[in-house]
Amino acid sequence: MASPSEHAADLLRRYGGHSAIDLLDAMIHTEFPGRIALSSSFGADSAVLLHMVSRIDPKTPVLFLDTGKLFGETLRYRIELARQLGLTDVRDLRPAAESIKTSDADGVLWRDAPDACCHIRKVVPLTEALDGFDAWINGRKRAQGGLRADIAPLEAFDGRIKINPLAHWGLRDIAAYFDRYDLPRHRLVADGYTSIGCMPCTARSTESDDARDGRWAGRDKTECGIHLQPV
Questions:
Q1: Dist. CA 53–CA 23, nearest whole Å
Q2: Of 5, 137, 141, 227, which sees the most CB atoms within 10 A?
């Protein structure tokens, strides 16, 4: 039996040159039917991947991390976009009440220990929700830089296959897709937010080329942890 790394290498060999929509179709219908989920932040670019999945199979499970610290605009966008695209299995993941009571009773863990805050509000709920799925679709892109600069369309991650259909997409590709399908934008994009996460840890972007420079601004932190290999 092939290891996850060997399986990912084989899939990359067979599907690595496919377009995003064709890659998704193969993963959802051929390789992992009934065993695949998409995680989405319903953020600035999320409508692109959500729209693609809705065209292939709107019953595909969509995992949404409702951390308790999101912008109200994001929560409304999640409801409106899911309804518009006809997504029928959007699952709202929330941190365990006991974890919040024990580790973040005053609600300011994001300020004092952001990695710990992300762990209880994002990493743990998503890890638990992915249990039972063999493949995980997400929207990371090389153009986002940092640890994402060399991601492949398919990779092994924590015992399952991780699918990055937009790995090679840039800002122009995203904008063109929004225009082509007349997709609604997250309301905060027009207000200068190019990457949108939790409210306390998200600022308007600067003039730099890094679309994620408003995330954890002023800190030596670029990832929440859900995309970091467990140690």
A1: 11
A2: 137
